[in-house]
Write a structure and sequence with these properties.
Blueprint lengths: L7 E6 L5 H13 L3 E6 L3 H4 L2 H8 L3 E2 L13 H6 L3 E7 L1 H9 L5 H8 L3 E6 L3 H5 L1 H12 L3 E2 L3 E4 L5 E5 L3 H12 L25 E6 L4 E2 L5 E2 L6 H12 L3 E6 L11 E4 L3 H11 L4 E4 L6 E3 L19 E3 L3 H6 L8 E8 L3 H11 L4 E6 L10 E2 L1 E5 L2 E4 L3 E2 H15 L6
Bound molecules: cytidine-5'-monophosphate (C5P).
């Protein structure tokens, strides 16, 4: 655990149910010796109490614009400038809209406007509110202004819906804060990669498009075809590429992982949606297909839930999905300079991987033995990096270390410093 005893954070708690997670974030920040001063909006106080926050921070909570006469006696300019970093968590739709418009009608928005420090926002709201063009406009404006976002993530929401809008977990927000406090806008890989990292800058200026996770192919409104991919390897590769300085677009199927920090993450469900988003993300220098794309989808998705029938079992007619990797590998226009695929095999690993290298016109295939314990859904992977020039067998290692070596190799193949 890295300690930051000299650092000060001004934490703005917006009014959302996710505010309870912010309490855990405060605890973790305090464990690292970070001084946390908290401002709560009126709505935030409906979700968590000032007393809980003050007990955790050990200092006064500020909540009124015209009453900055507490023990500290600090004015609002001083309050916002005194911090090394401002963090808005949860950043509600209302707070983001105020920030984007430069409104300053309450203490929280005034401090966000008055600051000369970086702002990290952890949005949290209902999926429809997040996807609403008004919120997306706010986010785009704020990104242009230099506000840094962590999350939101997708999953079950407190309101009973499912989708994008959950606030990132405290651990994810903490990682983002630690890197901003270290003066680093990019994330190193999770885990200790030290000398195995590709090194910052080795993919500087490169655009990388990566697919990750499974796809879900709907049968009817409640059922779907899926597979066991967790997305851990693809997400680790996206984080490694970002840490090496690349501009990364990650197109992810449904996973329960945080969006990697510093990576533009696009969430999709089906193989067809994934292909559309990959094509929209081109041109790129590098494409890495890590997703376990479903090979088939149901020919006709039923609009209504298919009912059980005592005498009849429904038969599903399947049609083949597009092969995204092959489609990108075989492009005549805008083919990325490097196309990298994965081959998850349970038998004849090298032979099958070699065949894919040719069939899908790839520059590299990462062959992994899925019979190895702990690979599917686990933290480790055992892979060989297969190119037309030869192969490199890596021992069983964490998915982060596989990601680091892969990115290093790719940087080398593009003329960087890692071959
Ligand atoms: O043919 P197979 O599914 O084993 O190939 C695996 C590789 O192809 C992976 O890189 C995977 O991301 C990619 N793939 C794809 N679209 C598909 C099937 C596989 O991009 N429909």
């Amino acid at each position: 655990m890295t300690a930051f005893p000299e650092k000060r954070i001004l934490l703005i708690i917006g009014g959302g149910i996710a505010a309870y997670k912010t309490l855990e974030l405060i605890r973790r920040l305090r464990e690292r010796g970070i001084f946390v001063r908290v401002v709560m909006t009126e709505a935030a106080k409906k979700f968590v109490t000032k007393l809980s926050v003050e007990s955790l921070t050990g200092s006064e909570v500020f909540d009124e614009l015209f009453a900055l006469t507490g023990d500290s006696g600090m004015g609002h300019i001083e309050l916002s400038r005194d911090a090394d970093l401002l963090v808005a968590a949860p950043a509600t739709a209302d707070l983001l809209a105020k920030m984007a418009q430069g409104l300053a009608g309450d203490l929280a928005s005034t401090l966000l406007l008055a600051t000369d420090k970086k702002i990290l926002a952890a949005p949290a709201m209902n999926v429809r509110m997040w996807l609403h063009p008004a919120t997306q406009r706010s986010v785009a404006l704020l990104q242009k202004d230099g506000v840094i976002f962590v999350g939101p993530e997708s999953g079950d929401m407190a309101c009973g819906e499912y989708g994008l809008g959950r606030m990132s977990e405290p651990a994810g927000i903490l990682t983002a804060i630690e890197h901003l406090l270290s003066g680093d806008m990019r994330l190193p890989l999770p885990g200790d990669l030290s000398d195995e990292s590709a090194g910052p800058g080795s993919l500087k200026g490169r655009r990388v498009v990566i697919t990750s996770g499974p796809t879900h192919e709907p049968i009817d409104p409640v059922r779907y075809i899926a597979n066991r991919s967790s997305g851990k390897q693809g997400h680790a590769i996206a984080a490694a590429a970002a840490a090496a300085g690349a501009n990364v677009v990650l197109i992810s199927g449904p996973v329960s992982l945080a969006d990697p920090f510093g990576v533009k993450t696009i969430h999709v469900e089906t193989a067809q949606e994934m292909l559309t988003q990959v094509e929209a993300a081109l041109p790129a220098d590098i494409f890495i297909g890590v997703a376990a794309v479903a090979d088939w989808r149901v020919a006709e998705t039923s609009l209504a839930k298919i009912k059980k029938h005592p005498e009849e079992t429904p038969a599903l007619t399947l049609v083949e999905n597009p092969d995204i990797l092959a489609a990108i590998g075989r492009r005549s226009k805008d083919r990325p300079a490097l196309v990298v695929g994965f081959a998850a095999e349970s038998e004849k690993l090298q032979e099958n991987a070699q065949a894919k290298l040719i069939a899908k016109n790839c520059d590299m295939i990462v062959a992994n033995d899925v019979t190895e314990a702990g690979v599917l859904g686990g933290e480790s992977n055992k892979v060989s990096l297969l190119t037309k020039q030869g192969k490199e067998n890596l021992p069983l290692m964490t998915k982060q270390k596989v990601a680091a070596r892969l990115i290093e190799k790719i940087a080398g193949m593009l003329g960087g410093n890692g071959q």
